[in-house]
Amino acid sequence: MYGRDLAGEDAADAVRPKVNRAFRALRKGNLICRMSFSCCMGCACAELDPMVKARKARGAVYFHKQDDSSFRKGHDLYIRYASAGKDDLKGWKAIGDEVKAALEAEGLVVEWDSDVNMAICVKTKESYRAGEQKAPTSRPVGRKPKLRLTDPAEGRE
Q1: Are 23 and 59 in contact (CB under 8 A)?
Q2: I need a labelling partner for 89 at 20 to 30 A (CA). Which of 131, 135, 151, 157 fits?
Q3: Is there a domain that residue 97 lies in?
């Protein structure tokens, strides 16, 4: 049900190349994509802002080093995304849909209920094997006002 059995393989080593290929495909759609980027969500947002502006990108897709560290310990991987469009709820959702589709096209199991306030979860076989129930299935996407990205739920910066 959740893809091939990763027994004998490190889940991160099996999933990571697929995420990399999905990010490569997303870059073709004028999105900035970064893996294990910056130390945390706040710093990643601050660093992505000038990149998005300089490249006139539609938005950004990333996971930060804290996400990567948790992932390498066998937990699910949370992919975060942002639209550069101010007050653009449709843009946020469109990017989320694109990210989900790109990850699934690589054969990854993805959980996302189209809530633009939540990160996209890439499930690992190890998380199911361990019966992981402690972590939420979704985590906040995270936004910094400096990014000038609007909170789609409230229509505020």
Answers
A1: no
A2: 135
A3: yes
Q: Is 72 exposed, middle or buried (0-12, 13-18, 19+ CB in 10 A)?
A: middle
SS3 per residue for 68-93: HHHHHCCCCEEEEEEECCCCCHHHHH
Q: Is residue 112 part of a domain?
A: yes
C-alpha distances out from residue 143 to 95, 116, 125, 155, Å: 15, 11, 29, 13
Is residue 4 in some structural domain? no
Confirm whether 150 is domain-assigned.
no
Does pTM top 0.70 for this prediction?
A: yes
Q: Tens of pLDDT along 49-98?
A: 899 999 999 999 999 999 999 998 888 999 999 999 867 889 999 999 99
Q: Which long-range contacts (CB under 8 A, 24 or more apart) does 132-137 make?
A: 132/75, 132/76, 135/75, 135/76, 137/76, 137/111
Domain containing 30 equals 11-143
